[in-house]
Design a protein that fits this description.
This protein is of the alpha+beta class. It has helices at about 5-10, 20-25, 70-75, 90-95, 115-120, 135-150, 190-195, 195-215, 235-245, 340-350, 375, 390-400, and strands at about 35, 50, 60, 80, 105, 125-130, 155, 170-175, 220-230, 250, 265, 270, 280-285, 305-310, 325-330, 335-340, 355, 360-365, 370, 385-390, 410-420, 420-430, 430-435. The chain folds into three domains: about 85-285, 3-Layer(aba) Sandwich (Rossmann fold); about 300-385, Nuclear Transport Factor 2, Chain: A, CATH 3.10.450.720; about 385-448, Archaeosine Trna-guanine Transglycosylase, Chain: A, domain 4, CATH 2.30.130.60. Helix content is about 25%, strand content about 25%. The strands form four sheets. Strands 5, 6, 7, 8, 9, 10, 11, 12, 13 and 17 form a ten-stranded mixed β-sheet that branches. Helix 4 (about 90-95) runs parallel beside helix 5 (about 115-120). The protein starts with a helix and ends in a 13-residue tail after the last strand.
Length: about 450
């Protein structure tokens, strides 16, 4: 792998940079694969795991298995995520917010790695808004939130500037900023040819704009976790230094084990591939001291006309555990949201463009529920719902939306399950079963 000389020279003098070791790490790199376990969906995985030391949930996997043909992956038992980025966990735990009921935002959340990670760290009473500005990427973000089984997440599609409508609102903001991507050169060779100093400068200007908007939405006393997968100082230390000076932000140092190989730099931390078992990554934690709002914000709640409480429907208790939840109707869809965040939901409806929230339960048709895929994967699915155990071959066929050969035993809606993990719905009729696995999620390959 030939790296541009202008890129290599731009890194001279940065803490932890050693050109010979850096080039060797790119020239002779063995692929590094890591996953992060979903603590709410424990399963026995069939491949060898080596723990990522800075997280309770992460493991290296070697050799890399076929995740496409692992039903546990499709059921949300784990997420395939780059190991260095899991350092988010150390920053969040050491912020002191882990056991508090907070409002959190992942501002650039697609495809959902840091959002699902943060969700696993949040107290159950917290609210997470997962935002993605690019409409085409929001579907994948929503699908990963659904697979994770989350109930206290709102997925939005907004420009960062629109979050200024929620001043002093969030206790924690994750900003994995769009960047030049040099930290992923070992995984994305096409990014090498796209790299230029002009691209770095363009990204830095965009990062400044996004930071300014995010800061206004952060509460005084709140923490902003800023990260990139770039090695360039202009997108990392320079951004942190500028922001600390301009906005009186306070850098929050964290304690990291020296054996992990993470390099402390000015107002942040760096992962170099010749020191860390992972890819290039920079992050910093910035605390907000003063409010940017002239007057304390007062939020006015107006009930949306498109939402009404689903009080007239028969009991849903046989489908979903509703303790602490409120069932709402949006158009033809039923959804369940935590009761304690009803006011927040109304506010988000007014200020932002929410695409998904809580648990989508399904549609009520002719006095019967047609359940949504999200309900099957939810951690709130009622134990009264029948499950059909599938072996691996049957589970793969189900995920391909093929006909399932099994002894169904009962009629009606049942959940297809693999090793106890819910995969989706089957509607069992006389002598056959209709496969309701979402067409857009199906496995397209027939074999490895």
């Amino acid at each position: 792998m030939l790296l541009p000389s202008s890129f290599l020279e731009s890194l001279d003098g940065l803490p932890g940079y050693d050109r010979a070791l850096f080039e060797a790490a790119h020239a002779h790199a063995d692929p590094i694969t890591s996953i992060r376990i979903n603590p709410s969906k424990p399963v026995d995985l069939s491949f060898s795991l080596e723990r990522v030391p800075w997280t309770l949930f992460g493991s290296y996997v070697n050799p890399r298995p076929s995740f496409t043909f692992d039903p546990n992956f499709h059921g949300g038992a784990y997420y395939v995520q780059e190991a260095s980025s899991m350092l988010l966990e150390q920053a969040f735990i050491q912020s002191g917010l882990q056991n508090q009921s907070i409002r959190a935002l992942d501002l650039c959340a697609a495809p959902g790695g840091k959002a699902t990670h943060l969700h696993s760290l949040l107290a159950p009473e917290s609210l997470l808004v997962a935002n993605e500005v690019i409409r085409a990427r929001t579907g994948l973000l929503r699908d990963n939130i659904v697979k994770w089984g989350a109930e206290n997440v709102v997925v939005t599609q907004n420009d960062p500037g629109q979050f200024e409508r929620l001043p002093d609102y969030f206790d924690w903001i994750t900003l994995d900023a769009p960047c030049s991507g040099s930290g992923m050169f070992r995984k994305d060779h096409e990014a090498i040819t796209a790299w230029t100093p002009a691209q770095v400068n363009h990204c830095a200007l965009r990062q400044q704009r996004i930071l300014q908007s995010a800061w206004k939405a952060l509460k005084p006393g709140g923490i902003l976790f800023y990260a990139t997968c770039s090695y360039s100082a202009a997108e990392n230390e320079a951004i942190a230094d500028w922001f600390i000076k301009e906005y009186e932000a306070v850098f929050q140092p964290i304690q990291l084990d020296s054996s992990w190989g993470v390099v402390e730099t000015k107002n942040g931390y760096r992962c170099w591939p010749h020191f860390v078992k992972g890819e290039g990554f920079f992050f910093t934690c910035l605390k907000k001291i003063h409010s940017d709002v002239a007057v304390n914000p007062s939020y006015r709640f107006e009930k949306s006309k498109q939402i009404k409480k689903a009080t007239l429907y028969p009991s849903l208790n046989g489908w979903v555990e509703l303790a602490g939840m409120e069932v709402m109707e949006i158009g033809e869809e039923l959804m369940a949201l935590p009761k304690m965040y009803q006011a927040d939901w109304q506010l988000i409806q007014q200020a932002l463009n929410p695409l998904y929230a809580g648990i989508r339960l399904g549609k009520w048709m002719r006095d019967k529920l047609v359940p949504d895929h999200a309900l099957a994967l939810s951690n709130r699915l009622s134990s009264a719902v029948a499950k059909l155990p599938l072996d691996k071959q049957q589970a793969i066929a189900y995920l391909q939306r093929k006909e399932i050969n099994a002894d169904f035993g009962t009629k009606g809606w049942v959940v297809a399950a693999y090793q106890g993990l819910s995969l989706g719905w089957l509607n069992v009729l006389s002598g056959r079963a209709n496969n309701y696995y979402p067409k857009g999620l199906r496995i397209l390959k027939d074999h490895l």
